[in-house]
Design brief:
The complex is a heterotrimer.
Chain A: H1 2-15, H2 17-45, E1 56-60, E2 82-83, H3 84-91, E3 98-110, E4 119-126, H4 130-133, E5 138-141, E6 154-157, H5 159-166, E7 175-178, E8 181-189, E9 215-218, H6 220-224, H7 244-249, E10 253-260, H8 264-283, E11 294-297, H9 298-304, H10 310-340, H11 342-350, H12 355-391, H13 397-401, H14 406-432, H15 436-439
Parallel strand pairs in A: 4-9, 6-8
Antiparallel strand pairs in A: 1-10, 1-11, 2-10, 3-4, 3-7, 3-10, 5-8, 6-9, 7-8
Helix pairs in contact in A: 1-12, 2-10, 2-12, 2-14, 10-14, 12-14
Chain B: H1 6-15, H2 17-49, E1 59-66, H3 73-86, E2 90-96, E3 106-110, E4 121-128, H4 132-136, E5 140-143, E6 164-168, H5 169-175, E7 185-186, E8 194-200, E9 215-219, E10 228-234, H6 239-253, E11 257-264, H7 265-308, H8 310-318, H9 323-360, H10 367-393
Parallel strand pairs in B: 4-9, 6-8
Antiparallel strand pairs in B: 1-10, 1-11, 2-10, 3-4, 5-8, 6-9, 7-8
Helix pairs in contact in B: 1-9, 2-7, 2-9, 2-10, 7-10, 9-10
Chain C: E1 2-12, E2 17-28, E3 33-37, H1 44-51, E4 59-64, E5 67-68, H2 74-84, E6 85-88, H3 100-110, H4 115-129, H5 144-156, E7 162-166, H6 174-189, E8 193-198, H7 201-205, E9 209-214, E10 217-223, H8 229-238
Parallel strand pairs in C: 3-8, 3-9, 6-7, 7-8
Antiparallel strand pairs in C: 1-2, 1-4, 4-5, 9-10
The chains are: A alpha+beta, B alpha+beta, C alpha/beta.
């Protein structure tokens, strides 16, 4: 029976080539638009560490001055970074299972075998829990274990830097000069570039290649070198700071902090700890704004920091509206076409076809159109993503993320099948209700 | 004279309801999307066309960082500037702490009143020398530029106080809404006054995210933040070549410091515009497609309707309808569908516009866009039905009497 | 075979009520060839639709081939139409996009017959109507008479118990008409019950019985003499 219906369907579609082409192309275009936007939206808004979403929390306090809020677009939110003073104090708590404070630095690498010119590297200065907390994968070695003030300072290289300086070999134990100081390589990362860069959204969730972290050193090296962070720093007002010591004690916001708090109880305790600190500091004259200590999980953090740009949301909705228009188009065409075939349906019914058989025959026709449209839509969608990647600026966000992944394919197929079949259900059902007698009258 | 008999059209439509309802729905959605998309595109284009206030095409920047804390950045800077200024084709060169239009830069907050309680305005700032404004091609509109003696040398100090500063017009308007900021003191969160000695035309300083024209210039040799940028303006057409020459030389001329970036301002301008441009392109594409699909739908269905009703058309002609009466019939039918779809579409467009304004801080939809959208859709929608209507008119009256 | 008792059907619109069939009673025995005639508007078409299970009726009882079909579901009625009834229409109602073979095939498909059996039946039916050589042709390539013969082949391919013919010769010239009627008689002789609906008294005379219907009611019912087979053969040869 299926082959019979298939034959009838192909026959019927061939009879109106223009309409058939219109239906298939319209569906394909709608689906392609949705595929392109869905893939990019999914990539951009996805949580790269979703399995730890309930345990990792961004730690923020509101030490901003009174008056206009830190971010006029989000007036109720505290700033995303802490002062050095607050960060080091909070990091001293043992309530969190793990914790990390960090900032970015400019770095210069030297001393690798055969290296002529120094290599400028974006350095992340962070405490040792960073690697375990964020499940950073290592190719060789691991993070630094001991005291951050070990005699022989330790450095972790990314795969790219290791490839460039050591030819990709296992460089653990080798020494290298960073910012004029000798370091020992203690670990080399595997390819790791989570997008969005959830743990440092402030310096760019989709940082271009020249701004992604290239080496990691212990956090204490910032103060040891009396260096200023290269990452985002906001000081309200610049008065009153004359030297580095005053800088560290100032209200400049440049340290980011994350805590791993696996249980609700630990979260409450840490929150209480933060609130107690806030109260004490307020008595000493700091924190003029109202209490606003927050622990924010990763997906909320991404949301709150506008990582998913409003643009991509709008575009996604437009793509869906387009798909809706295409589907409505299809429903209309199918309906009209099927109803036009009513006299012949009447004959078939007179010859003994039941309503279900008529419905089945037409659903097969709908299925043929939907499969053709879906396949064409997939091809167009893939082409669209390739075009986005090629034509737009290379380090532009959209260009980097336009990778067609298997999840996207599955999504697209499901979307195609579901939407077109849904579109065809009503026409196929309504044509089965044709009463045979009405169409068999003599002319 | 055409007889626009609306009643028979309405009755024919009501018997053939579903197809018409679907087309009307398509039109409603298409109108809502078109109008709002055009509005968003207009906003973006405005942003793209916003003048940077600089000579973007002929300027490039080279970023330099010290190799170690022992590096004499001041000497390196002098060396680099001397070399750059000596290159044939270079019009001007300067050393600053940030690169306009790029993410490299710093920000602070300022107010017109002293003390920590004063209302603060956020602004970008730039450590500059006396050649900076000239290199960037920025005019002084009031007051004066820095002189060479104003510029403070490098030190390990932070946020030193500067008795004299320069600000852009936009920042001046924000700090002193009444006008005339020249000569007035401004404060960076404490009580140390900084006098505004010059006001410049608007330009976009460093732009980590959304660009603005607020900028503060400090007379300070850059390098406190660990790096400095050489900004160079060249004669037209020589920018790319000179960028490569300069970069190659600077990379090796002083091994106490390293070049970590070398890029034209045009590149950063393009990057800044990139997202807006992408959005505009995508929206334009989808809007065009929606329009096309809707029109093809109208065309297809009308053609189809005509082909199924040839007997009725033939009969109408047989009893005296002229060709143009048939055309009128179908155009009126189409117009009714467009009208109903359009009414729903207007409501939908306004609703979506309101929602966009609230959700995404866009300005409210300009009703001119709505009007243009309605007219466009009406015209194109009728055009789509024109050809099928003419085909209907060519159905011969003899069709009426044919039996099988 | 066909037994209707006091069947009534009323068409209601907002404005008027039409009593198409009024206490209509009729009994057709198996193997009979019966004509149902009457002026236009008399209800013959309604009778045909009801008899063929194409429409429901309001009151009365209708039994087809011993089965009470008064309150059957739509699916069951479809099955009955498929298995027990063969239709022949005035306007042939062949499906224009299918070739002759496929047209005859349609009812057999809905009966889910295997390909071999279908093929056998189709070939036999087309041979009976004399069009086996035109299996792959499209309906538009055949004359009116040939198309009607294909329709007849379609009607008999499934070995129905009852054939309902609605003005089968209305669109044919006299020669083709005679051919068609000859075929119908032949089929009747093979044992199939035939009910022929027509307004043409000449046509009605070829049946065994004539049921005259006026205003939805059976007026009279009289038998006719069948024409002799020899006369038919001579008539066919001359045409």
């Amino acid at each position: 029976m299926l082959s019979y219906y298939l034959r009838l369907a192909l026959n019927s579609l061939r009879r109106t080539p223009g309409l058939t082409a219109l239906m298939i192309c319209a569906i394909a275009l709608g689906i392609a638009a949705c595929i392109v936007m869905l893939t990019m939206y999914h990539a951009m808004s996805g949580n790269p560490i979703w399995w730890k979403n309930n345990v990792l929390y961004a730690v923020t306090m509101d030490s901003w001055d009174p008056g206009p809020p830190y971010d006029p677009q989000h007036p109720t939110l505290p700033p995303p970074e802490l002062t050095y003073k607050d960060a080091t104090y909070l990091a001293g708590s043992d309530i969190p299972k793990r914790k990390v404070i960090m900032a970015q630095l400019q770095g210069m690498l030297n001393g690798a075998p055969g290296q002529i010119l120094p290599l400028r590297v974006m350095t992340r200065a962070t405490t040792q829990d960073f690697f375990a907390m964020f499940d950073v994968p290592f190719e060789y070695g691991g993070g630094w274990r001991g005291n951050d003030r070990d005699a022989l300072p330790e450095i972790v290289l990314t795969k790219q830097v290791n490839d460039e300086l050591f030819g990709g070999a296992d460089s653990v134990g080798r020494s290298i000069v960073w910012n004029g100081n000798r370091f020992r390589v203690v670990g080399v990362l595997r390819d790791w570039d989570p997008l969005p860069r959830f743990y440092d959204v402030v310096d760019g969730a989709f940082a271009p290649p020249e701004d992604t972290d290239q080496v990691y050193v212990p956090f204490s090296w910032i103060t040891a070198l009396q260096a200023q962070p290269f990452s985002n720093m906001t000081c309200h007002g610049s008065g009153g700071v004359q030297n580095y010591r005053q800088f560290l004690a100032s209200e400049c916001l440049w340290v980011q902090m994350w805590a791993e708090l696996p249980s609700a109880a630990s979260r409450e305790r840490f929150h209480a700890f933060m609130d107690a600190y806030w109260a004490a500091q307020r008595k000493a004259g700091r924190f003029p704004r109202p209490l606003n200590n927050r622990l924010t999980d990763v997906s909320q953090w991404l949301e709150v920091n506008g990582v998913v740009s409003s643009d991509s949301r709008i575009l996604l909705r437009v793509a869906f509206a387009f798909l809706a228009v295409c589907l409505i188009n299809t429903v209309g065409i199918l309906l009209t076409k099927f109803i036009r075939g009513a006299p012949i349906i009447g004959v078939r019914r007179a010859l003994g076809a039941s309503r279900r058989q008529i419905f089945a025959q037409h659903i097969v026709e709908v299925a043929v159109v939907s499969i053709a449209g879906a396949l064409l839509g997939l091809a167009l969608g893939a082409a669209g993503l390739a075009a986005v990647q090629a034509s737009f600026a290379q380090d532009n966000t959209y260009g980097m993320l336009a990778h067609f992944n298997p999840l996207g394919v599955a999504w697209a197929l499901a979307l195609a099948a579901a939407s077109t079949l849904a579109a065809g259900l009503y026409p196929a059902w309504s044509v089965g209700r044709v009463q045979p007698a009405g169409y068999l009258k003599r002319t | 004279m055409m007889n626009l008999n609306v009643r028979p059209v309405l009755s024919a439509l009501s018997r053939n309801r579903t197809g018409a309802v679907l087309i009307a729905l398509e039109i409603a959605i298409a109108l809502a999307v078109m109008v709002n998309a055009a509005w968003i595109i207009a906003q973006r284009v405005q942003q793209i066309e916003a003048p940077s206030g600089l000579d973007v095409r002929e300027t490039f920047a080279i970023g330099v960082a010290p190799l170690s804390s022992h590096t004499d950045l001041g000497a390196a800077q002098r060396e680099d500037l001397a070399y750059l200024r000596s290159l044939p084709g270079v019009v001007a060169a300067t050393a600053t702490s940030s690169v306009p239009l790029s993410p490299y830069g710093q920000g602070t907050t300022l107010s017109a009143d002293p003390g920590p309680q004063a209302p603060m305005t956020t602004t970008r700032f730039m450590e500059a020398d006396e050649a900076t404004l000239g290199t960037l091609g920025v005019r002084i509109v009031a007051g004066r530029n820095f002189s060479a003696t104003d510029i403070k040398p490098l030190s390990q100090g932070f946020f030193q106080s500067y008795p004299e500063v320069i600000i852009t017009q936009s920042l001046a308007d924000k700090l002193f809404p009444g006008g005339n900021a020249l000569g007035k003191p401004i404060y960076a969160g404490d009580n140390t006054p900084m006098t505004v000695i010059g006001i410049t035309s608007n330009f976009i300083p460093s732009a980590p995210s959304s660009p603005s024209y607020d900028a503060l210039l400090l007379p300070q040799t850059p390098g406190d933040f660990g790096s400095y940028f050489c900004l160079v303006r060249t004669r037209p057409g020589m920018t790319a070549a000179l960028l490569q020459t300069a970069r190659r030389h600077l990379a090796t001329s002083n091994l106490e410091r390293v070049v970590f970036m070398a890029q034209t301002l045009a590149y950063y301008r393009q990057r800044l515009d990139a997202e807006s441009r992408d959005v505009a392109v995508f929206l334009t594409l989808v809007t065009a497609l929606i329009l096309a699909v809707t029109c093809l739908g109208i065309f297809g269905l009308t053609t189809f309707n005509v082909s199924t009703r040839t007997k009725q058309i033939g009969t109408l002609r047989a009893v005296g309808a002229r060709k143009r009466d048939i055309v009128a019939h179908y155009l009126v039918e189409n117009a009714i569908v467009l009208l109903s779809g359009g009414l729903v579409g207007i409501a939908l467009a306004l609703g979506v516009g309101d929602w966009l304004s609230d959700q995404y801080q866009l300005p409210r939809l300009d009703l001119h866009f709505l009007a243009i959208g309605v007219i466009t859709l009406a015209v194109i929608g009728q055009l789509a039905a024109w050809q099928p209507a003419r085909r209907a008119a060519s159905v011969p009256p003899s069709v009426a009497t044919r039996t099988v | 075979m066909l037994k209707m008792q006091d069947v009534s059907k009323v068409y209601r619109t907002d404005l008027i009520e039409t009593h198409a069939l009024r206490n209509f009673s009729l009994e057709v025995k198996s193997g009979q060839f019966v004509a149902v005639s009457g002026p236009s508007g008399s209800g013959k078409t309604t009778f045909l639709n009801v008899a063929g299970l194409l429409e429901t009726f309001d009151t009365g009882i209708y039994a087809l081939d011993g089965q009470d079909v008064t309150r059957l579901s739509d699916d069951a009625r479809s099955r009955m139409r498929n298995e027990k009834i063969g239709f022949i229409f005035q306007s042939f109602n062949l499906i224009p996009d299918l070739d002759i073979y496929d047209n005859v095939d349609v009812p057999l498909r809905y009966r889910r017959m295997k390909a071999a059996e279908r093929n056998q039946r189709i070939t036999k039916a087309l041979e009976l109507v004399g069009l086996a050589s035109r299996m792959k042709h499209m309906p538009s390539q055949l004359s009116g008479g040939q198309q009607q013969r294909v329709a007849i082949a379609r009607a008999i391919a499934g070995d129905p118990a009852l054939i309902l013919a609605d003005e089968p010769t209305g669109n044919l010239d006299s020669l083709m008409a005679r051919q068609v009627m000859d075929l119908l008689e032949q089929i009747n002789e093979m044992g199939t019950t035939i009910v022929l609906v027509t307004h043409d008294p000449e046509l009605a005379r070829r049946a065994q019985r004539n049921i005259h219907v006026v205003d939805g009611v059976v007026i009279d019912s009289a038998p006719y003499e069948r024409r002799q087979p020899a006369e038919e053969a001579r008539a066919g040869a001359e045409g």
